[in-house]
Amino acid sequence: MLPSTPGTKVVAFTATARPSEALAFYRDKLGLALLEDSPFALVFDAFGTTLRVQKTGSVTPHPYTSLGFDVPDVEAAIRGLRRAGVEILRFSQFALDAHGIWTAPSGARVCWFADPDGNVLSLSQR
Q1: Domains in the chain: boundaries
Q2: pTM for this model (two decimals)
Q3: DSSP string of 25-71?
Q4: What's the DSSP call for residue 24?
Q5: Quick one: what percent of the chain has pLDDT higher than 70?
Q6: Which fold has domain 11-125?
Q7: How far, in Å, CA of 98 to CA of 108, rounded?
């Protein structure tokens, strides 16, 4: 079992084969604070969680969400992403509204977008 002591934190990981584009995306389009740019990873403060975007030779994105953000207002967050030039993804298996939002059975409202390597990211409003 992991220690449940003060100071234990989760670190999120994803990967990029395009570090300069990933840097611009995560820092400038998503607004995450860059903590480190090393030969191995871009490290961001993702609203209190450390996000390590590992620099790799190639990336094979998963067909499902690899990183998600809970937001208080998903429509406002979508507007902000669109202003930054981020396209909202549409998946035919989900009944999406005009904004590209799916309402899950739980009532959560979810939409998806991708980083420059094609990693699928999501916004959720619970």
Answers
A1: 11-125
A2: 0.93
A3: IIIIIS-PEEEEE-SSEEEEEETTEEEEEEE-S-----SSEEEEEE-
A4: I
A5: 100
A6: 2,3-Dihydroxybiphenyl 1,2-Dioxygenase; domain 1 (3.10.180)
A7: 16
